[in-house]
Design a protein that fits this description.
two-stranded antiparallel sheet, 6 helices, globular, 7 strands, 3-stranded antiparallel beta sheet, alpha+beta, single chain
Length: 165
């Protein structure tokens, strides 16, 4: 297939499609069955960048050791900003730490997982990760926007999680 770029009047060749290369790590589940959508949490840019950095460095499948200095250099933020981002993500329940003084972080397997679904279930049983819960900042942002209350019946939660009967 040949396309003509109107702006530069040059011929653009379409790239051939390449089949997806499965790398053997499994697949990544994101935001499946969560009652709290990420957009409602009022995440800052450094918090979004931290989530993405952890996912790219294996934080969906296991703990990743990182300091605020190292993370800040990679995402282009200061040490204090990255420390605040990590602390808020842990407080929200999006990121899990093995201990209070640990420098290791993992994305919450209830929210993000890389691997087979059966190993996700086992990891959730082993870790008992917290549910994602909005903090004061998220509640303040969402309180300023009027919206209807979500249904809280079990059937409504199943529909939100994508289950059908």
């Amino acid at each position: 297939m040949v396309l003509l770029n109107v702006d530069t009047a040059e011929v653009v060749q379409a790239r051939p499609r390449t089949p997806h290369q499965f790398d053997g790590k499994g697949y990544t589940l994101q935001a499946m069955g969560s009652e709290v959508p990420l957009y409602s949490l009022g995440l800052a840019a450094a918090e979004w960048a931290t989530l993405e950095w952890l996912r790219e460095h294996g934080g969906a499948a296991g703990y990743v050791t990182v300091t605020p200095d190292e993370l800040g250099e990679d995402i282009g933020a200061s040490k204090d900003t990255t420390r605040k981002a990590l602390n808020r993500l842990v407080k929200l329940g999006l990121v899990v730490k093995p201990g209070a003084r640990s420098g290791s972080y993992q994305l919450n397997p209830l929210r993000y997982w890389e691997g087979a679904g059966s190993t996700q279930v086992n990891a959730c049983r082993r870790m008992a990760p917290p549910r994602v819960a909005p903090d004061d900042k998220a509640l303040t942002r969402s309180a300023s926007k009027p919206k209807s209350a979500p249904e809280t019946t079990p059937a409504a939660r199943r529909r939100a999680a994508g289950e059908t009967r």
